Amino acid sequence: MKVLVIGAGNMGLTYAEAMSKSKLLKKRNLMILDSSPEKILSLKKILHFDVFENLEDCLPKADLIFIAVKPYHSEELFAKIKALANPGQIVISIMAGVTIGTMQESMGIPKVVRAMPNLPAQIGKGVTSYTASKEVSRIELLTIENLLDTTGKSIHVSSEKFIDASTGISGSGPAYVFYFMQSMMEAALKMGFSANDSKVLVSKTFEGAVDLFNQSDLSPNSWMDRVASKGGTTRAALDSMDDNNVKELIKEAAYSAFNRAVELGEEK
Ligand SMILES: NC(=O)C1=CN([C@@H]2O[C@H](COP(=O)(O)OP(=O)(O)OC[C@H]3O[C@@H](n4cnc5c(N)ncnc54)[C@H](O)[C@@H]3O)[C@@H](O)[C@H]2O)C=CC1
Ligand SMILES: O=C(O)[C@@H]1CCC=N1
Q1: pLDDT tens, residue by residue, 60-101
Q2: Does the residue 165 lie in any domain?
Q3: What residues contact 224, with CB distance under 8 A and at least 6 apart?
Q4: Which of 137, 184, 187, 193 falls between 20 and 30 A from 29, CA-CA?
Q5: Predicted local distance difference test score (pLDDT) of residue 17
Q6: What are the pLDDT digits (tens) for 200-212?
Q7: pLDDT category, 268, cuts 50, 70, 90?
């Protein structure tokens, strides 16, 4: 099986690196294409990839076409792919919003998988939701799931609605966590800690809390109760967050990302 990754940015390069180590791909069966000359130059230094500058040199050879360009670059790319593609090829797209129907129509390829990964894929700790058009067989889907699993955990969802929804939760989610971290680091700095101490205090707090959560069946609410003593410091902080409606605002933010994903699909 030959895989072509189109777009060697944050996510495309992450997937290319991870998939190239999969047992499903024999040596030198990973092709990679980018439109940026600087990117091509740096890719050529990575010896285990076959790097391409032109679609016509690589697309016809691919069994699986992995698309990782920004949604606003997709339309132009699809038109070029359509001129070279054959209907037996399979497309996997990780682009936010861009729908399976749009991709089938714009590339003339019926077999399309839509996936939504997240940035921790870079360290093998990503979570990817995915769904496929009915033309993709169960065996093909199993192969694709294996490839997606090279960057962490994947979950199959029943419809594209859940791809847009997981964009609002897990796809964009790491940025919400970084937002929280940044806020706490700014508070620590304001309290007088050095930049390094602020970083250690905050990152260890996040790491420890997530590890605790993962090692039990307790809900976040139950864990909050274990930290907060009646009339104590944590309660003061949690009350302040409740008074300021922080929980509702976070939910609203997740919905904004979800709605934006839907909107991106409608813009096509
Ligand atoms: N960054 C993230 O955390 C996540 C991103 N995504 C999705 O992944 C996709 C890629 O995002 P990033 O990797 O962050 O973007 P990026 O900007 O880092 O990478 C995109 C790459 O595509 C290349 N490119 C643009 N047009 C091209 C074309 N016609 N042919 C070949 N290469 C082309 C660019 O030169 C660039 O290297 C987006 O559609 C985004 O919605 C999904 C989940 C998480
Ligand atoms: O912000 C974006 O549009 C992409 C999709 C999920 C994470 N980054």
Answers
A1: 999 999 999 999 999 999 999 999 999 999 999 999 999 999
A2: no
A3: 234, 238
A4: 137
A5: 92
A6: 999 999 999 999 9
A7: low
Please tell me the residue having the least CA distance from ligand 1 atom 38. Answer: 70
CATH label of the domain that carries residue 204: 1.10.3730.10
Q: Report which ligand 1 atom has the smallest distance to the Cα of 13.
A: 13
Q: Which residues line ligand 2 (CB under 6 A)?
A: 96, 167, 171-172
First vs last Cα of the chain: how many Å apart?
Answer: 31
Domain span at residue 85?
3-157
pLDDT in tens, 58-70: 999 999 999 999 9
Test site for ligand 1: of 17, 49, 56, 69, most ligand atoms within 8 A of the Cβ: 69
Ligand with the closest atom to the CA of 33: 1
Among candidate residues 122, 157, 192, the one where a domain is terminated: 157
Helix axes 233-243, 220-227, angle to 10 degrees: 130
What is the count of structural domains for the chain? Answer: 2
Q: Are strands 50-52 and 90-93 parallel, antiparallel or unpaired?
A: unpaired
Q: What's the rounded Cα separation, in Å, for the pair 145 and 155?
A: 8
Beta strands 64-67 and 3-6, pairing class: parallel
Ligand 2 centroid, distance to 240 Cα (angstroms): 30
In this structure, the answer to whether residues 38 and 136 fall within a common structural domain is yes
Ligand 2: residue of 167, 256, 259, 262 to mutate (most ligand atoms within 8 A of CB) is 167
Instruction: Output the CA 115–ligand 1 centroid distance in Å.
Output: 14
Is the domain of 125 the same as that of 244? no
